[in-house]
Amino acid sequence: xxxxxxxIAEGTKKDTSSSSPDQKGVIVAHHGIAxxxxxxxxxxxxxxxxxxxxxxxxxxxxVQNNRLTRLPRRTELRRRDSRGSVRIVGANLDVxxxxxxxxxxxxxxxxxxxxxxxxxxxxxxxxxxxxGDLEKSEEFVASLTAIYAGxxxxxxxxxxxxxxxxALESFMGQGFRSFFVGITGVGKSSLLNTxxxxxxxxxxxxxxxxxxxxxxxxxxxxxxxxGGGELVDTPGFNEFGLVDISAQDLAGYFPGFEQAMxxxxxxxxxxxxxxxxxxxxxxxxxxxxxxxxxxxxxEILDQLEAGEGRFKTRR
Length: 315
Known about the structure:
The chain is an alpha/beta fold.
């Protein structure tokens, strides 16, 4: 029996000596069939992966003999694309920075769906209003401030003049891992170039027709900020479809309904349309919730219910 134990120990020792030691790191860029990993030692190296392995920027991993093992995620950010597919776009995040601009203006409901997604994912939503140097930008900032002030932190900035960037950098420098998301052309890459000049990311221009942007970021990347914290830049998301948000839960995450959620509706499955004893409808009548907020909520609710119907049909 003792000889057998010794053989096992020797065999284990021999196997360990023939393999490379484990290396822990974080994925800082995703290239489809390979990822860049920043290891705890400071080394940065590309490791090949299967195309649909499910790894994303922000994942903590262990690499041994070029074999990558993903560690459990603390948080993950998911979105549904225009084809209905669910995509995980970032892991182990703290803050979702929703970047918007007067041109190109956000699509209806975009900001609200991003805030709902952040709250459902246990992330802190933040609104970053870029291009403060444009004409009539003050009116755009005022309109969004009237809706979201007191609900989320708002930073009005300009990547061109540097206005407001000190406050934004100070916020992110608290050690957060922030995720920049916004429709194509709102200036995410320009903001990163200003915050991290060494990156020198390519910046696009707006197309004349519809003032839509062209996508200059093609790979999701994680950057360490000199003032502290980390920031993930991604290709533009022109849509931000909700994932695993039920119609009943939508109101609980919807920006502007916070006061209503302190009360209780008569029916547990209330969708806040025309149900009697609805706390949301009551606040709308009393002026506690604006008609604009309520209309936007109903539009997103319609989309959710349509999605539920399509899912049931497929099943």
